[in-house]
Structure formats: structure tokens, C-alpha cells
């Protein structure tokens, strides 16, 4: 489908809606199979939805807006992640205990926290950050704790204090100024120091950390980790 056809369809829908004509009499969806969502050219909290050729006008839930990329709920995204441009949006909160908007992500504490609150339909649920991370309200997600100083103490979050010096004849010194260290009993992660502060790094699902050469390797190369069993 070309952009010209898409835009013609959208503006035809606007013309019909403005004239008070039912959408069932509006132009047919550009595509007759599958699900397609199109931005409303005037409203950021509404969009046109075609489901196997059936056209509906949808409204994003409170706290969400449409950008064509959102997958939080019904093709919509968190309002702080959407650039509406000139489109107007209703951002009046419909608050419930623990949730400013019906959909949103919020800190669960006024202090450094390794979890956060995720709201859906006004119901708050506590969600954990990945190990070694802390919630950053500036990005509405989890972040390295050394990027949250002085709000967060990286040593307390990671559970490790970086040494001020690393002996030259050690494996850790090979990675200076970002020396690496193993995590006792954990074959899937390592600790690296960034400007004197620890970060807990994951090798990824298909790698294991070799505490001898301080690198992530294929499981079969790390025999003491049980070939993939941490």
C-alpha cells in the first residue's frame, strides 16, 4: 500500500467523522486482511484500526498515546514515549491508589530501589529490575546504579566494592581501566568496574563466564560450570 493511499484513507475517515456520517459508510480499509493501525491526524490519543477490513476508531487507555509503534496496550504507548507533534491529547490523570494514570511506570520508593511499579488498568504491580540495576525515573526504566550517583550507592546495589588498584600480573589487569571480576557461584554474570564503580554484566543466555580468563565463552569451554548448568 502506498503512502498516498494511506493518507487518502485517513483524511476520508476524518471527513466522514466531521460530517457526522457513521464509519460503516466510510471508505473501505486499504487492506482487507490482517490488522493495521493508522494515526489520527488531529488526536494523539485516538487512531483508526482496520481488522480484516473492518474499520473502527479506537481510543488509547488513560496514560497512553498512539505513535504507530506502541505495544503497551492496543497499539498504544506510554505518553512520555510518544511525540504527538501537532496532534492533541487528553492527558488528564485518572488516578487510583499507586497509579497516577491508569497505565504507567512509577518509582516504588523515594529512595534508590531495585524495583518499580507498573500500572495497567489502574492496578499497580511491583516489578523487579534485572540484577545489578536500579530504577531511574528519568528514563522510566532500570539503569546502572553508577549513573544514579548520589541517589544510588552502586556498591550496595551490586554487592561489590571495586579495588583502587589491580596487580599488574592478574587477569583483571588485562581489562584496565575496566577490570573484571567473577561473581562467586554465578557462571552467567561478571562484574566490571567503571570509574571505580561496579556494574553487574550478563554474558547472555548462550554464554558462560570463565573465571580463569575473565571472558564469556561457549558453555562447553567452561567445564567447571557444568557445560551450561550454573
Automatic annotation (TrEMBL):
It comes from the Eukaryota. SMART domains: ChtBD2 (SM00494). Residues 1-19 form the signal peptide. One of its GO terms (cellular component) is extracellular region. Keywords: Chitin-binding, Disulfide bond, Glycoprotein, Repeat, Signal. GO terms for molecular function: chitin binding. Pfam families: CBM_14. Residues 26-86, 96-154, 159-227 form the Chitin-binding type-2 domain. PROSITE patterns: CHIT_BIND_II. This is Chitin-binding type-2 domain-containing protein. The lineage of its organism: Eukaryota, Metazoa, Ecdysozoa, Arthropoda, Hexapoda.
